[in-house]
Write a structure and sequence with these properties.
Shape: globular
Oligomer: single chain
Bound molecules: protoporphyrin IX containing FE
CATH architecture: Orthogonal Bundle
Helix content: 40-55%
Number of domains: 1
Number of helices: 18
CATH topology: Cytochrome p450
CATH class: Mainly Alpha
Structural class: alpha+beta
Number of strands: 13
Strand content: 5-15%
CATH superfamily: Cytochrome P450
Amino acid sequence: MSTFTTGTAPGALPGLGHMWPLLRDPTAFLASLPAHGDLVEIRLGRERAYVPCHPELLRHVLTDDRTFDKGGAYYDRARAMAGNGVATCPHRDHRRQRRLMQPAFHHDQLKAYAAVMEHETAALAASWGDSEVVDAYPVLYALALRTVTRTLFAAHVDEAVVEEIRQSFETAFSGFFRQMFMPPAVRRLPLPSNVRHRRALRHLHGTVEGIVTAYRRDGAGRGDLLSVLFSSQDTEGGDGLTDAEIQDQVVTVLAAGTETVAATLTWALQLLSEHPEQQRRLQAEADAVLGGRPARWDDIARLPFAARVVNETVRLHPPGWLFTRVTSAETELAGRRLPPDTTVVIAPTTVHRRTGAYARPLEFDPDRWLADRAAALPRGAFLGFGAGARKCIGDDFGVAECVLVLATIAAGRTVHSVPGADTRPVPLAAFHRPRRLPLRLDRRGPR
Ligand code: HEM
C-alpha cells in the first residue's frame, strides 16, 4: 500500500477561494497541485474541497462510487439540467439505469449509428472550399450536435429543432460553472444571468419533451438510440425506464456526447497543426486505408494511429476537466479523515500531466498509446473517460466519431494554424476547449 502525502493549495482568496486561478488558467493551476501533495485541499468559493492528484487515489475515488457518490457543486448543477439521468443519478439508482441504457451503446448499435457519423462528416468535408478557413470549435460542435441528435432520433429532425437545442445548451452551459460557484441564495436572485439560465433550461426541457412525445406518438422502432431506450419499457420485470427518465437520458446524451467530442476534435486539430510530422503520419495512414475517400465504420480498426491521436489529445486536454463527488459517509483518503458531505474534485489533468505518471508529460506523443508502452503506465494514469461503474458509457461512440472525422479530414486536407488563435481554455466552460482556433484546411493535391 502506498503512502500518500497531503497538502493545501496556496493563494485562496476570502469568499472566492481558488476561483481566480481556475478562471485565469485552469490547466496550469490543476497541473501545479501535485507539487503540494497527493491529496490537495482547495476552495471552491467558500467551500473546502479535496483534489486527488495521485493515479491510485483518483482511481480509488472513481471506482468506490458508493462512498464517493455523484454530488457536490458540479453534479448538483448538472442535475438541474439532466435531472436524474444515468450520469447524474446517485449510486442507489445507477445500476438499474446503466443496465437499461447499456443496450443502446452495444457494439452492433454503434455500427448502426456510424452511418450517421459517416454521412454528417462526409457532408461537412464536401462543403469546404480549396483553402477553407474555419473557426474550429463552432464547426465541430455543429457536426457533433447533428450527429448525436440524428443518432438519438433517426427520423428527420428539423434544422430548426437542432438550432433550438444548440441555443438552449449554449445558454445553459455558459452559466454552468458561474452558477456552480455562486452561493445558493445568489443563485435564486432574479439577476439577468440567473433568469437567462433558468429560461434556457426550461426551453431545453420543453424541446426535448416535445420530441419524445412526438416520437412516441409516431411509433418507435427505427433502430435509433431512443427506440432502444423505449424498448426497455416492454421487457419482462416491468422496471423499464419511465417516460420522465427517458427524457432525462435524452438531455444527458445530448449534453455528454456533444461538447466532449467537439472539444476533443478541436484540440486534436490544434495539436496536429502544431506537429506536422504527426499530421503526415495520420495522412499516410488515411491514404493507405481510405485512398482519398471519407472514412467508414469498417475502417476504424485499420486506423490505429488516428485512435492514438485521440487518446493522446484526451490525455493532454481532457474535455471533462473538473467534476465532483460527495462522500456519502465518513471515510479516509490519503490518511485524511473526510466527514460525510465532503466535496472531492476530479480533475484528470492533475494526473495526466504528472511527471511520475508519464515520461515528458507535456509532449504530444501519440505513440505512448502503443500497446506495450501503454501497458507500462501506472494504474489510474489515464482517466479521461473516468473509471469504474460510472465510466463513460459513450467512450467507444466518442472515439469512433473522432477517428472517423480525423481520418476523413486527413485524407483530403492539410490543417494549418492561422493568426488569431487564442488557445487559452474558455474560462469556466463546462467542457475544456480553446477560446478561438481558426484553421486553414488546404485541399491536398493528387497522390
Ligand atoms: C471524447 C469524448 C468523451 C469524453 C472525453 C467523455 C468523458 C466522460 C467522463 C470523464 C465521464 C465520467 C464522469 C464522472 O465520472 O463523473 C463520462 C461519463 C458519461 N459519458 Fe462520456 N465522454 C465522451 C463522449 C461521450 C459520448 C459520445 C456520450 C454519448 C453519446 C457520452 C455519454 C456519457 C454518459 C451517459 C456518462 C455517464 C455514465 C454513468 O455515470 O454511468 N460520453 N464521460
